[in-house]
TrEMBL record:
Signal peptide: none annotated. Residues 125-139 have a biased composition (Low complexity). Pfam families: HTH_23. This is Uncharacterized protein.
Length: 147
C-alpha cells in the first residue's frame, strides 16, 4: 500500500518547512486520498470506503490531507511524463529504423520522415509560442532603441 514515509515526506515538502510537524494520515485517509487523486468522486469514495461524504469533505479541508492528495497527483504526473517520454523515444526509434531501412517501401519511408518532421515542427511551434508569451529582455531593449 502507501508508506507512511511517502506521505510524511510529501506533506513536509508541501508545507515547505523542515520544522513543520505534520500529523500522519490514518490508513483510511491514505486510501481515500489515493482514490480522490486518481479521479474518484467524494460520493464514490464514501460508498466504497463505507464513510459519509461529510467526513470526506471535512478531510478535504485539512491541510495535511490536501497536501497528501497534491503529492499523489504530483507523483502521478511525473510518472506519466516519464512514461510518455519513454514512449516518444521508442516511437522515434521505430520511425528512424523505417527511414534507414533500405527494404522499406518509399511510401513507408516518406511517411516516417513526414511524421518526424511534423513532430519537430509542432515542438518548434510550442517553443516559439512559449517564448512569445514571456517578453524577452532583448525586446524591451529594442523598443527603447526604436523610440
Amino acid at each position: 500500500m502507501i508508506s507512511h514515509s511517502l506521505f510524511s515526506d510529501t506533506l513536509a515538502s508541501e508545507e515547505g518547512a523542515d520544522n513543520v510537524r505534520v500529523m500522519p494520515l490514518s490508513e483510511i485517509q491514505q486510501r481515500v486520498a489515493l482514490l480522490l487523486a486518481t479521479g474518484h468522486t467524494a460520493r464514490e469514495v464514501a460508498q466504497k470506503m463505507g464513510l459519509s461524504e461529510v467526513t470526506i469533505h471535512r478531510w478535504r479541508q485539512q491541510p495535511e490531507f490536501v497536501a497528501a492528495v497534491r503529492g499523489i497527483l504530483k507523483q502521478n504526473k511525473q510518472a506519466l511524463n516519464e512514461r510518455l517520454n519513454n514512449l516518444a523515444i521508442k516511437a522515434l526509434e521505430v520511425l528512424e529504423a523505417i527511414i534507414d531501412d533500405p527494404n522499406a517501401s518509399t511510401t513507408d519511408r516518406i511517411n516516417a520522415a513526414s511524421k518526424v518532421l511534423d513532430f519537430v515542427n509542432q515542438n518548434q511551434l510550442l517553443s516559439s509560442s512559449q517564448r512569445d508569451q514571456s517578453p524577452s529582455e532583448s525586446n524591451g531593449g529594442d523598443r527603447h532603441s526604436e523610440q
